[in-house]
Amino acid sequence: MGLTGLQIFKLLPKTNCGECGVPTCMAFAMALANAKASLDQCPYVSDEAKEQLDAAAAPPIRKVTLGAGEFTRAMGDETELFRHDKRFFNETVVAVMVDDTEDVAAKAEAFDKKVYERVGLTFYTDALAIVNASGDAGKFKAAVEAAMGKTDRILVLCSEDADAMAAALDAAADRKPLICSATAANFDKMVELATSKGCPLAVKGADIAETVELAQKAAAAGAKDLVLDSGSRQPSQTVADLTQIRRNALKRTKGFGFPAMAVVTSEGDMDQVVEAVSYMSNYAALIALRADDDALLLPLLSWRQNLYTDPQKPIAVEPGLKEVGDVTPDSPVYTTTNFSLTYYIVEGEVEASKKPSYILAVDTDGISVLTGFAAGKFTGETIAAAIKETGLEDKVNHRNIVIPGGVAVISGKLEDASGWKALVGPREASGIPKFVRENF
To answer: Which of 186, 207, 317, 351 suits 234 as a labelling partner, its CA being 20 to 30 A distant?
Structure first.
């Protein structure tokens, strides 16, 4: 909430009425400070106190939403400097840049097909950033319209020419693109466009100090949904600026409480990805780069996925009985945990064995085989319970189940608890194809 329990207590009515569900106002204040209660539970709090508490409860970094319809992304709304303290929430928006001098329609069509599967999750590059490289307002508008005809994903409009931006927004305002950017030279016109069209606005100064000054002026003029661009295009300085913006935002320093963006300037494709990873790892809410090859974007998006995963909650698949291939009642049965990385490695090797099979994914709260065994979540008893819960006995003619070689010790208890025969499989999933050839 941003206030201590004692600070909150001073703003409460101090009636100790208990109508909020706790016996005293001090106890209620402590619950509010720990996000275990909401202010609307107190029927007697004053409007003035409510306004102060609501302001304190607001996230230190404003939430800014890009796009409209099916494809929208939120930026900001973050509360942490270090991921392990809690987690990061809104994934970095990755924007691929294309000049209005290129075949924008073809680029946008190819961009729209960039959809990736990883550990059972689907993700994609979020935004197409159209750059007014021609300097011509007509060409810029035509490029934006061409892109809109080929993709529904988020648009970032990149031009410091206010007239060109106005022309493009005539076509694209309903898509809520990011206007990029307001500078000291075009400030008034860009702010007017952002407020009149209801679009988020990036502000860019010559340095971080000027950027924050412009952001304060823009907010005072009514442009609330802002993105900070420190103006740096040198990687080490950009990382320093992103870090400074985040630190000051969390301290609620005036003018810093907005998501920040970065533009990749390296020329080599691999260098662009490395630079983008540096910015993503240091609080960039939006990154614009030119690399658009799948082999480059997939690692970048995979890193984003890992960075924004809750560190206290592993990625897990839905527990239950899975089918690999055209299974029959005679198909082999394997068991593993529902930790995504473990499960999909096992599934891949079972598929590679070319023997249609069942995989029983036991609910271990998303932890791996050995960790699940140590925690008492992947045992003979839990596997036996999963066999019953999934109705596996009705799906196969045999009573054989393959367990990971690393937990061979559970085989006896599994057989006692289930009546099934436990076949000890390889210690590593890579041994499954050979195991299949030798046993099935």
So the answer is: 186
Residue 175 in 3-state DSSP?
helix
* Structure tokens given for 15: 């009636």
Question: What mean pLDDT do residues 391-410 have?
Answer: 96
**Spatial CB neighbours of 85, under 8 Å, sequence gap ≥ 6:** none
- What residues contact residue 225 under an 8 Å CB cut-off, 6+ apart? 62, 64, 65, 194, 199, 200, 201
Distance CA 360, CA 336 (A): 6
From 35-39, 70-74, 128-132, 150-154, the region with the lowest mean pLDDT? 35-39
Residues 221 and 182: beta-carbon distance below 8 Å: no
Cα(421)–Cα(148) distance, integer angstroms: 59
Q: How many residues does the chain have?
A: 440
Q: In which band, very low, low, confident or very high, does the pLDDT at 6 lie, cut at 50, 70 and 90? A: confident
Query: What are 46-50's contacts with CB under 8 Å, separation 24+?
Result: 46/13, 49/11, 49/12
Among 75, 139, 26, smallest CA distance to 284 is for: 75
Nearest CA among 38, 78, 66, 42 for reference residue 250:
78
pLDDT tens string 160-187: 999 999 999 999 999 999 999 999 999 9
With a cut of 70, say whether residue 19 has pLDDT above it. Answer: yes
Chain centroid, CA 231 distance in Å: 25
Q: Buried b / exposed e across 234-271, counting CB within 10 Å, b at 16+? A: ebeebbebbebbbebbbeeeebbbbbbbbbbbbeeeee
What pLDDT digit, counting tens, does each position of 203-249 carry? Answer: 999 999 999 999 999 999 999 999 999 999 999 999 999 999 999 99
Chain CA centroid to CA 200, Å: 20
Q: Which two tokens stand for residue 238?
A: 């950009």
What gap in Å lies between CA 255 and CA 212, rounded to an integer?
5
Q: Tell the burial category of 108 from Cβ atoms under 10 Å away from its Cβ (0-12, 13-18, 19+).
A: buried
| Domains defined for the chain, CATH in brackets | 5-57 (1.10.15.40), 64-307 (3.20.20.20), 320-439 (3.40.50.11600)
Q: What is the Cα 370 distance to its own chain's centre?
A: 28
**Contact present, 234 and 213 (Cβ < 8 Å):** no
* pLDDT tens digits, one per residue of 350-381: 999 999 999 999 999 999 999 999 999 999 99
Q: Tell me, what's the pLDDT at 1?
A: 46
Q: Apex CA 153: angle with CA 60 and CA 212, to 5°?
A: 30
3-state secondary structure of 199: coil
